[in-house]
Amino acid sequence: MRHPVGIGGEYACPSEDCGGLYGYYDVLAALADPKHPDRDDWSEWMDKDFDPAAFSVDGVNHNLKARITC
Question: Using CA atoms, how far apart are residues 32 and 49, in angstroms rounded to an integer?
Answer without folding.
Answer: 15
